[in-house]
Amino acid sequence: MSLRRLALGRREEAVHPNTFRAAISEFVATGLYVFAAEGSAIALRKLYGDTSSTGALIMVALAHAFAFTTAVAVSTRLSGGHANPAITFGALLGGRLSFIRAIYYWTSQLLGAIGASLLLRVTTGGIRPRGLSLALGMTAWNAMMLEAVTTFGLMYTVYATSIDPRRSSLAAIAPIAAGFLVGANILAGGPFDGAAMNPARAFGPALVGWRWSHHWVYWVGPFFGSGIAGIMYEFIMIPAELPQSTSSTQPLAGDGY
Question: Which of 15, 29, 42, 89 is the most buried (most CB within 10 A)?
Answer without folding.
Answer: 29
